[in-house]
Amino acid sequence: MSDGYFPPGAERLGVSVDVVIFSLREADLKVLLIRRAAPPFKGKWAIPGGFVHPPESLDDAALRELGEETGLRDVYLEQLYTFGAPKRDPRGRVITVAYFALVSDDAPARAGDDAAEAAWCSVSALPELAFDHAEILNYALRRLRYKLEYTSVGFDLLPNEFTLTELQTAYEIVLGEKLDKRNFRRRILDAGVLAETSRQREGEGQGRPARLYRYKKNAVTEIKARRLFP
Amino acid sequence: MSDGYFPPGAERLGVSVDVVIFSLREADLKVLLIRRAAPPFKGKWAIPGGFVHPPESLDDAALRELGEETGLRDVYLEQLYTFGAPKRDPRGRVITVAYFALVSDDAPARAGDDAAEAAWCSVSALPELAFDHAEILNYALRRLRYKLEYTSVGFDLLPNEFTLTELQTAYEIVLGEKLDKRNFRRRILDAGVLAETSRQREGEGQGRPARLYRYKKNAVTEIKARRLFP
DNA sequence: CCAAAAGTGTTGGTTTTACACCCATGG
DNA sequence: CCATGGGTGTAAAACCAACACTTTTGG
After folding, report:
1. In Å, what is the separation between the CA of A209 and the C1' of D25?
2. Angle of the B164-175 helix axis to the B181-190 helix axis, nearest 10
3. If you placed Cys at A94, which of A72, A89, B21, B184 could pair as Cys (CB 3.0 to 4.6 Å)?
4. Rounded to the nearest 5°, which phi and psi values hold at B5?
């Protein structure tokens, strides 16, 4: 650190990133939690996270944490909010920059260094959490639901190719309400963000096979934000 | 700091807050800038901000900075985003939590400690800025415009009592487009967030005097976010 | 041929936009 | 009495919500 001018009164603080990782599994919205292997809050469940290393950006730190817990890199990741109450960490002054990530259900969960255990927990049955992580998680959930209505972030919860019914189910799980099939399809198709493939979902039990779609990345997402699912 | 467990690898970083303070003045959207009195970027214009003191929360630090520059406390203040590129501050590793504030045009601007000068600058004619402050300001402006369309944040740019034309003009300045008078009035009145006072704007030159309104604070702002001004 | 899931249009109600004239006051 | 800004309604278009049957496949 080249801090020739660093003001003497400017104390440095601990800075961590915490990543709320959402995924749809077993027809439920789940979040990846770890059981803390070290104090403070040893044995308690927590959102995965860790301290920012000096040479890396905040986004890089979040990506690193995400990689350590899931092995994934190419997922939706967005900065959420920075939490900085003075007593939020009993070790001293630590602020945390919270992120949220969306991964599809083929992502594994592996325990990182300071975790004894990692598990996907349903957001509707969360254990007691360390630090202010309950607040962070709540905030992330609100933001996810909000974004789902206005943007096309929903695709990031699904694998590359998916059927319209799978997409609708994803929306229904996250929003916690049933949607009308015909209106849903009209809307999503009219929005022009899906490309239809020539392939179909095969070998999925009974019924007529469904066409597979892909999300068009190029789709302009920031036109003049119109609500996608009112 | 009671850091019995503080991990040795966890280096601490400089943490600052920067507050983008918007105000409507001279029929233009302005932002409060200070001219830096000390290195780095001495003599360059910058967004007001400073280091977070260990015992204060981030919000408190932002309020403190706001108070130092404007003497105000009771204004709209919202956390924006945290910027943390490794080289954003030449002194070393400093991340900054950016806030944005809205003040009405009776707010003064006074130079704080580390400012040689403070001035309200039109967002359409900004000088070159220190650090990554141009990026921060851009981000704040996008967020302000966005919020104005969806929420009732616009009232915070006006004094306590205002006429509908003043409110409409505020929206037009920030959004940078003309709005239809009848549709504007219908929308804002139907939204039920205004209380009409029995008073009128007096002594304002010519024409019929306009009724004064107040913003109803209690108004539920988070119903099911419907766009206020499409 | 039966069960299961995919796929597909229409209508009525609501919301949004575009648009032009009369009113109250001060000089 | 005129100039200035305040205040008001309506009609056409776009959008949204509700709703049920036919198609394709596997067993």
Report:
1. 7
2. 110
3. A89
4. -100, 0
Phi, psi of B183 (to 5 degrees): -65, -40
**For residues B23 and B144, is the Cβ–Cβ distance under 8 A?**
no
Per-residue pLDDT of B111-123, as tens digits, reads 776 777 999 999 9
Nearest C-alpha in B relative to A3: B91
Which positions on strand C lie below 7 Å from a protein C-beta? 3-10, 16-20, 23-27
The model carries a pTM of 0.92
Q: Whole-angstrom Cα distance, residue A160 to residue A158?
A: 7
A77, A62 contact by CB (below 8 A): yes
The span from the CA of B114 to the CA of B117, in Å, is 9
Q: Provide the angle, in degrees to the nearest 10, between the axes of the packed helices A164-175 and A133-150.
A: 140
Active-site annotation holds for A161: no
pLDDT tens for each residue of B6-27 = 777 678 999 999 999 999 999 9
Backbone angles phi, psi at A64, to 5 degrees: -65, -45
Active site residues of B: 117
